[in-house]
Write the structure tokens for this entry.
Amino acid sequence: MSLPEILNKLFAHIDGNHNKYIETLAEAVSIKSISAHPKHRDECQRMIDWTQYKLETLGIVCEQVNIGMQSLPDNSTLKLPNVLLGVTKNFDPKKKTVVVYGHLDVQPAEYSDGWETEPFKLTLRDGKLYGRGASDDKGPIIAWMNAIEAYHNIGTELPINLKFVLEAMEESGSLGLNKMLISRKDWFDDVDYICITDTAWLGNEQPCISHGLRGLSYFRIEVECASKDLHSGVFGGVIHEALTDLIHLMSQLVDCNGKILIPGIYDDVEPITPNENEIYEKITFDVDAFHKSLGTPGKLLYDTKIALLQHRWRFPCLSLHGIEGAFHESGQKTVIPKKVIGKFSIRTVPNQSTEKIEKLVVDYINQKFKEWGSPNKMKCFMSHGAKPFNENPFHENYLAATKAIKHVYNLEPDIIRGGSTVPVTLYFQEVSGRNVLLLPLGCSDDGAHSQNEKINLRNFFDGSKVLASYIYEVSQIE
């Protein structure tokens, strides 16, 4: 099928400016906007300022919103980086309006972590651009800039209005964002759709669109056995040790087959519908390639495509994350820790209530500790939670994205769910009441949050085309 002439022009312009786009991404990657580290807070704000300058050169009217202070563990406070709001100049109420969300902060990264190149110096190697934030989420934001710039440079006015919400605290829980969105709720009155590109494809070849995400309930179990750490040679064998209690409790949460052992946890999970397996069967997913990419020594919990995808997306899971307070460095240390904290989370699915999950878990752990019979102090609680997200994949917003992807890749995208949690999807859904589209640009092996994060040149450039096409297709919605 032939492309609309405007898309031919846009694609040709994007193809002729690859070097420019790489240079812009290199500038963004060089800014160490690590939100988790207070010492880099100025860099987070610098990233906001840099992005404002870039957007304003593209005709986006920007405003920075002060979202207050962050309380640190040492009881000090630190200013949160501003949230950047943007609106296309000459806003036309007759046009459709899309809100674009993205984040400008990144996960911590050091060369010594195992990177092959410096993480904050964009490096081109084997058709891939390596650098922290290249895929999550600076690359996709710059792809939006590329799409807007392409319209300007072919002499065509943007056929829709764009609004931007860009933050620099997403990797640290999006502190202050929800409160700010609620306070500016009327800002969404003239909005038609929301688009978020902070996700990834299911694989590395087949583009996709995501309409659902799991929620998250994160728990802590605290056990205290003494007022100070004790020498095991002196006190071992005469006290109830906190770490022994904790290991027992954590062993009661999930079995070796991944089944959550907490009674009632599966009660609200939607049963599989008669035709649901057919939907999963159509999705492009290579089980063997997926298994190989993980580097796991044995078999996976499930060996069929349908079962693997369903347990990644539509069923809850429980993961153990770590123990705070216990000795974990190299060498030997014969200490009995006075207090240990176990951390675990449950990824929840639609129909599961965060409040109900919390009660089920806390009641279960309390009962197990009572049965165990230890006299130590124990407390279990949920430290934070986020609801699951689900959206209508047949909405006109999703149909526009589907057409945009077909224009670029000549493929029908898979419509999938995601297994992770992106709380901002719910923020926007609840505050705006508008359809929220998850439109990934990068591949599943991009290594977001990991060493050697990258974005493929193909995905960076073709992703810019997808966004340019999406803008066009939204303008065609009647």
